[in-house]
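Lecture 7 notes: from sequence to structure.
We start with the chain below.
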Amino acid sequence: MKDLWVFEKEAAGKGCKDIAGIDEAGRGPLAGPVVSAAVILPATFRNSDVTDSKKLSPKKRQQLYDVIYAHAVSIGIAIVDPIEIDRINILQASLLAMAMAVANLDPRPDYLLIDGIFPISTDLPQQPIAKGDTLSISIAAASIIAKVTRDRLMQKYHLYYPQFDFPKHKGYPTQAHKEAIRKFGCCPIHRKSFKGVKEFIYDKHPAKIRRTR
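Predicted structure tokens for the same chain:
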């Protein structure tokens, strides 16, 4: 079995105690925020089910979300909304969210393990890891927290914009979502700089937003 503690052990060997894994959810959707999570796990944490959130069923993610919250030393969450995504682009918004999530940790970590190939803006020592959510237990835990948090937000947005059926596709560019954009136009949480949305900003039939109680 793959040892998902390899990177954490290497950092601990350098004298680091509080090692945080950082990941994000929501780079690809046409709507909604990008959400990042930073997680510090205790060295005693063991759960063989924790892995990349994309490999887990929604039910399993929910279960592991509760397990991680019950055992983590600290969890930091950060959300960057579609307006900021459009302003600075999705890559920069994702890196910003990661840095914000780290800033929300208490205690402050000694070392960061970041999913991906890009470093974030921080004075803390860090290690970007390509496909880190499949290689590091801390990053995998962060991926689960970020994914569940974002999915719950998209379910709440459904109360305001039910015509887009966000609980079903979470804002990703499914055929049904793209057809809804063509029919209703875009709503306030759509990313107006994204292909598949920007073409419909000036549509003659803008989104008919209605609130439901």
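Points to note: The CA atoms of residues 16 and 110 lie 6 Å apart. The radius of gyration is 18 Å.
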